[in-house]
Design goal:
Elements lengths: L10 E10 L10 E11 L4 E5 L6 H8 L7 E6 L2 E2 L5 H7 L3 E4 L13 H11 L6 H14 L16 H12 L6 E5 L7 H18 L2 E6 L2 H7 L2 E6 L2 E7 H6 L4 H12 L3 H21 L15 H5 L5 E4 L2 E3 L6
Parallel strand pairs: 3-8, 3-9, 6-7, 7-8
Antiparallel strand pairs: 1-2, 1-4, 4-5, 9-10, 10-12, 11-12
Helix pairs in contact: 3-4, 3-5, 5-6, 9-10
Length: 328
């Protein structure tokens, strides 16, 4: 991880809350998709954010990008609070804050050539220069992601899924951002292609010093890529720490179950079953006891304290934080 000259984190998220209107009857309370989430990302650091479908990790990404509005909390990017920054100001912030999305086809305009897709951020921010400079910059960006110059005049449908994701990455790094939010960027790709994209992201980090918020449900990929990892469940972060340490010695009972099934016994399918079954139980717990620990209904260590109040994310060692009454 590259250090910051100021010593301050590149991104700081503090007590973030994001709600959505409830489905069905209007008298139901709003759904807390993200519930008091806090984390930091250093300059050049990769933070992996893992969790099952519906846990709030993608909503967290959208809030950081200011694509959904937070109900409360703070988002500070590169020393500037952007939680409620105007759209005009966010236009300037987005030069340094970019994204790569899950669907490598849906995120690309099928009517545009690769040249125009990659150059679009340069055009929008007035950084394209003349026609020759624009073409040279596109060629340079394509080369950085492993695509040839002659591909620039093709359309997205002429490329494979992995190639389309490379185009999306080229577009994301066009302005030289400090942070790229990657929301499940390899989940729609074949396993062999996933490894290529992950290695490409690492290569870009090494050459450009870019930091990533890398969101995924695949623990193996997150372990390989990340400097630190945050585990999310029911809209809350329940554990965070250095990647190798967290996977070698998980502290939260939920994290222990995931790691044991995904790595120790190499039963990834069983891990997915656990996540799916846990999701329904968590939803019921939050609906009936919103102040309880999100995992108490499934936790073998749960006590009355767990059912009465949610534990805070507490420091338990160097770089380690966990939200568990039995650990903290």
């Amino acid at each position: 991880m590259n250090g910051s000259t100021s010593g301050l984190p590149l991104l700081s998220v503090e007590e973030l809350v994001v709600t959505y209107p409830p489905a069905g009857r209007w008298r139901k309370p709003p759904v807390r998709a993200v519930d008091r989430v806090s984390f930091e990302i250093g300059h050049g650091e990769i933070l992996g954010l893992v969790g099952e479908s519906g846990c709030g990790k993608s909503t967290t990404a959208l809030a950081v990008l200011r694509l959904v509005e937070a109900l409360s909390g703070r988002i500070v990017f590169d020393g500037e609070e952007i939680t409620r920054t105007s759209s005009r100001r966010m236009r300037h912030v987005r030069r340094r804050l970019q994204a790569v999305f899950q669907d490598p086809f849906g995120s690309l305009d099928p009517r545009m050539t690769v040249r125009d897709i990659v150059a679009e951020p340069l055009d929008v921010h007035g950084m394209a220069g003349g026609r020759v400079q624009r073409a040279e910059r596109v060629t340079e960006l394509l080369a950085k992601v492993g695509l040839a110059e002659h591909m620039a005049d093709r359309y997205p449908h002429e490329f494979s899924g992995g190639q389309r994701q490379r185009i999306g990455i080229a577009r994301a790094i066009a302005l030289g951002p400090s942070l790229v939010v990657c929301d499940e960027p390899v989940s729609a790709l074949d396993v062999s292609v996933q490894a290529q994209i992950v290695n490409l992201l690492l290569d870009i980090r090494q050459k450009m010093g870019v930091a990533y918020l890398f969101i995924s449900h695949d623990l193996a990929i997150v372990r390989h890529l990340s400097d630190r990892v945050a585990v999310m469940l029911g809209g809350r972060i329940i554990e965070i720490g250095p990647a190798e340490e967290l996977f070698a010695h998980p502290l939260h009972p939920y994290t222990k179950s995931l790691v044991a099934l995904a790595f120790v016994t190499n039963r990834g399918a069983d891990a997915r079953v656990l996540q799916e079954s846990t999701s329904d139980v968590v939803a019921d717990t939050l609906a009936n006891s919103p102040s309880a620990c999100v995992y108490c209904a499934r936790c073998p260590k749960a006590t009355e304290v767990c059912r009465a109040s949610a534990p805070a994310l507490t420091v338990v060692g160097p770089g380690r934080r966990v939200a568990c009454h039995a650990v903290a």
